[in-house]
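Handoff note, outgoing to incoming analyst
You'll be picking up this chain. Sequence as last confirmed:
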Amino acid sequence: MPASVLFAPLFIGLFIGAILATVFWIWMLVEAATKESDQGNEKIVWILVILFTNWVGALIYFLARRPTRMRTLGR
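Most recent structure output, in case you need it:
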């Protein structure tokens, strides 16, 4: 069996993972921009964190800030 046949599923999996990470990053960026409170600097700080740290920042926002925001602001 050629090596390309063995590695094709790996490359396809990595490609799909990259697409899903990008979609998640855009989702969290849009959510931070549209649903964060306009009071104070929290909105701009979270947008910058998500922009500059990519999917890691999006994951931090999703796990740390989003539940708190939903609990306090209800959105």
